């Protein structure tokens, strides 16, 4: 476990949207190994909602549009899954 001071000093240099984007990208890479489109669609939908619900006072507007795109794409990915 990392001490909270190390995590806090890392997060102070970035916006919350950048950190969420990093977690989203790492999670997507991790889920690609499963090969399940349903789980990938759920992942996209969850992060789309997180990006949409993050307050715009602490976040850039571009992440709002990213969240909107993810919420639109997620059901498409989920519906084409054949598992």
TrEMBL record:
Keywords, comma-separated and alphabetical: Membrane, Transmembrane, Transmembrane helix
Keyword Transmembrane assigned: yes
Domain DUF8006, chain residue ranges per copy: 1-82
InterPro entries: DUF8006
Pfam families membership: DUF8006
Record field: transmembrane: 12-32, 39-56, 62-81
Protein name (record): DUF8006 domain-containing protein
Species of the source: Halolamina pelagica
């Amino acid at each position: 476990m990392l001490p909270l001071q190390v995590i806090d000093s890392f997060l102070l240099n970035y916006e919350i949207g950048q950190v969420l984007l990093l977690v989203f990208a790492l999670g997507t890479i991790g889920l690609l190994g499963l090969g399940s489109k349903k789980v990938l669609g759920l992942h996209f939908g969850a992060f789309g909602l997180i990006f949409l619900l993050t307050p715009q006072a602490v976040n850039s507007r571009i992440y709002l549009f990213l969240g909107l795109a993810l919420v639109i794409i997620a059901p498409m990915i989920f519906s084409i899954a054949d598992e």
